Amino acid sequence: MVTATAAPAASGQGPSRLAGPTPAAQPSAPNVNPALERFIPVTTLALVDRLTVPAAWPNGDCERARRFFRYLNFWRRQKHTQRLMSLLRAYEPFDPDSDLLITREYSATDKKKLQKRTVCEIERILERANYVRIDPKSVEMILTKDSHYGLDLHVDLGVFEECLLYYRGASMKRDRRTNYRKFMRKEEFDVPIYRRLMLLFKLKPFDIRVKEVMAERNISETEAAKFVTQMRGSLSTEVKDGNIYIKLFKNIPRSDLEMVFPNTRVKFRLLDKIKLGVTGGGAMGMGLVGTAGKLAAGGLTIANPIALMGAVAGLGGIAFRQGVNFFNQKQRYMVVMAQNLYFHAMADNRGVLIKLSERAAEEDVKEEILLYSVLAKEPAKRSDLPVIDGVIEKYLHTTFDIRVNFDLPDALERLIADGVVTEGPDGTLHTLQPTDAAAHLDAMWDRFLDDLPDGSRAEGSELDAEDFPHL
What are the boundaries of each domain within the chain? Predict the structure, then answer.
């Protein structure tokens, strides 16, 4: 069973083992804090260095443990690469950035199957990478009025057939701003951010969206088509409803999630409306008063049409200037949004899939080496899992000063699936020691290519050369 050894504080030598209270002192269920993420913000190398110090492994097994962890790292990444290749094949018909010759055509049924497979597999990768889903329909989280960048943004979520929004690493960052109430002094403040934010979207086909608008607004098809066309006017002409778009961002303020959507519309804030209204109204009022005064000065202006035309032209100039101010303010909004998105963007489409797959593999490896470091040293049963979960979470907090909700069940199932851990009839978990575990993965690696699936899919049919579309 898991013993009650004391876990020392983090140091250059590291703990001798992952340890915690005795099973009797633990509750019967895991201590799950829903506010904590499963993401472990530590590199694999840092974990391996601290988990394989000589004092942590009796009989000089520390080097053997390092060797096994290295094997496990490569093995897990190769398994993820296998699934990534299958995902990229499914995503190919929807990739907006593809520069490859189209040699296969797909029926509507085929594309529906591939679309579903693509979205489901991306969700699986995001879960493995310890991302957390945000419901795009959550008004409290998406359609916020407060904005870090001083923008009032609006998003129409009804245009999307597929829409996934995931984050990883909800935290704070320090920023500076000018406080006008304190004589223009700079002050620091905390900004809630998502360190990583992934958006996947696919537009609804135009005709389907038109039918929805007809039902929602009880209008004719012509009016609905005009409305949908107008609403899609904020989208780039490059955005097609047949493609699936995937975006990855970093350090996005939580109050500006609307900024990452493709159909974001900038609205004027109340302060800007008041400012434009006061300045514009004042200028127009003064212009009207001046023009009326000239008209009231007897028949002077009627007898002098040139003077009348000059007064009217002056009034038109004031109106034109206020219109320019209006468009300039909107343009400043768009520049602020574009500049900030430029520095927040990390990857697009196929590049996002590759990056997420690599992150998912890394998270799997970190979870597995932490769990293995307990099971290889301490006899345990499945009933001890709540204790082990608490032990690992305590170790991460003591060693790295981080708090996470450790994902123990998934890590255990992967180790069992690979044969590194086996479960007896009574629930006892038997774990291969480092030398045997490394030899076991070595043998699996030798069979890996022989066991690869064919990879062929029934969707689509190959085109003849004369049917290839012109590039």
Answer: 23-82+357-448, 129-267, 271-332
* Closest CA relative to residue 134, chosen from 170, 159, 169, 164: 164
Residue 364 vs residues 43, 156, 172, 239, 458: alpha-carbon distances, Å: 12, 36, 26, 35, 31
pLDDT digits (tens, 9 = 90+) for 246-268: 999 998 887 777 778 887 766 55
Q: Please report the DSSP string for 3-58 in residue order.
A: -----PPP-SS--SS---S-GGGS-SS----TTS-S---S-HHHHHHHHT-GGGSG
Contact 325, 276 (CB under 8 A): yes
- The string over 206-232, giving b where at least 16 C-beta atoms fall within 10 Å of a residue's C-beta and e elsewhere, is eeebbeebbeeeeeeeeebbebbeebb
Token couple for 32:
């799950």
Distance in angstroms (rounded) separating the CA atoms of residues 320 and 341: 32
Assigned token pair, 189: 């403040």
- Tell me what the mean pLDDT of segment 32-52 comes to: 85
pTM score, whole prediction: 0.76
Which tokens sit at 243?
């493609």
Distance from C-alpha of 126 to C-alpha of 356, rounded to nearest angstrom: 7
